[in-house]
Amino acid sequence: MAKAIMIQGTGSGAGKSAIVAGLCRVFKDMGIKVAPFKSQNMALNSFITGESGEIGRAQAFQAEASGLEPSNDMNPVLLKATGEAGCQVIVNGKVHGTMKAHEYYEIKDRVWEEITAAYDRLSKLYDLIIIEGAGSPAEINLSKEEVVNMRVARYADAPVILVGDIDRGGVFAQFYGTVELLKDCRGMACHALTGTQELSDADYIKAFIVNKFRGDMNILRPGLRMIEEKTGRPVIGTLYHQGNLGLEEEDGLSIEHVARFDHSGHKELKVVVLRLKYISNFTDFAPFLNEPDVELKYSLWEEDISTADLLIIPGSKNTVSDLLLLRERGIEECVKAAVKKGTPLIGLCGGYQMIGKKVLDPDNVESDLQEIDGMGFLDTVTTMDRTKTTCQVTANLVSLKWFDAVQSATSCRWNNLKGYEIHMGSTTGDVGLFEIRRGLSRETISDGSTKGNVWGTYIHGIFDNDGLRTAVINALRMKKGLSPRETAFSYRTAKENAINSWADTVRNNIDICFILRQVGMEYCMNKQPGGLS
Prior knowledge:
Strand content: 25-35%
Oligomer: single chain
Radius of gyration: 24 Å
CATH superfamily of the largest domain: P-loop containing nucleotide triphosphate hydrolases
Number of domains: 2
CATH architecture of the largest domain: 3-Layer(aba) Sandwich
Largest sheet: 6 strands, parallel
Number of helices: 17
Low-confidence stretches: 187-196, 259-263, 524-533
Distance between the termini: 12 Å
Mean pLDDT: 89
């Protein structure tokens, strides 16, 4: 069975996901068979595995950093907020149901069995599991219900490294308060899990990492010494604030970061993604961030919509609610005005559903409305149902007038595209923009629709394909009278470079040997890892 180390945070957004990804790459480079694990994730950013299961996008990225194909076992429980209905609960990659919090807690014993089974399967395949926690382990009102922090550490017998975001302020109070609160965990919650009351949850915390530091290290050092004295635990690393790491983010909170991203220099093209309330898989558009001539904005401002060179309506966890919100706030009319004057529009997944003629919901899957008018850009109708389509796909573009001029002007190509589907319901009508194959099936089916300067598709990750993304950019450039670009930017290479750069930062600023000692792995700097002791 694998050894395990757990990265927990003093709160959400402390940087756990990125640090886990960095450690995965560090240990992979050392020759250790390493894999990520997060028992329960709550995020609208998800990924489809080769098993056609849905997991958190962060765990998929961590798997990539480990040199692995993502698997369902890396994130056995995923919670996706759907609005007033509660959360869609996904267990082992498949939808279990939509539940309120109290309903979810009623099935926590079954959920825990699925979590431990997934961990055990993963543990048999690897030497080291790097576990990510969620939120804070010191949410004492949830100590008897949680299945993602100290309960997992106890099950995996995993030493815990606690990460704090100093950029938010109060990091020393967070470290000290977390340890002190967890010292009191000696009651029924602990006893039921271990059969003993000898250890408190605080005993599992072995060290701290200070994340997102700005300033003079000499000023910080007295605080580091004091927190070590007060808690008896060392600070094994201080990571400076990195700005844009070029890494995929976990949830919609990081859209704030994108909004503040320094678009230095003149950008010839402006791509605006509508910032929906229930936006999902916003990382679909991350490849544009690395394009030298593209400014990417997530916005609902009329000024941004009216000045965009390309508008995108992204995926949504609640298509009907987000469509109604766009309508009520007058944003739909802004989009229609922009399209009327010639601005191209792309709808992706939920956005694709919105830009058709109607959205039908006979079983009230998403709302109390059984029928709602779409924006009417495409001659399509979407019917919601309770079955969720989750699969990896390959696709070929059938025909898109956008690209006619591009095809004759450049050598960029856009066939054999890779992506994945995550959606409730199906869309019919004038469908046939792409021919797709799901999973390993040889059957070809139609996806997507186009009309005028508008097109839509269910394919997530479509802009990861360098040829198609470059064709989109070149179509926009030529529309503005700019010369097309011949060379496609490699998004895969950019991601690898970003992971390696971040891993170097982690390696150089965190005591990796301390972590290896905690998990009982011997490593000589001049040799490959000696394995488990």
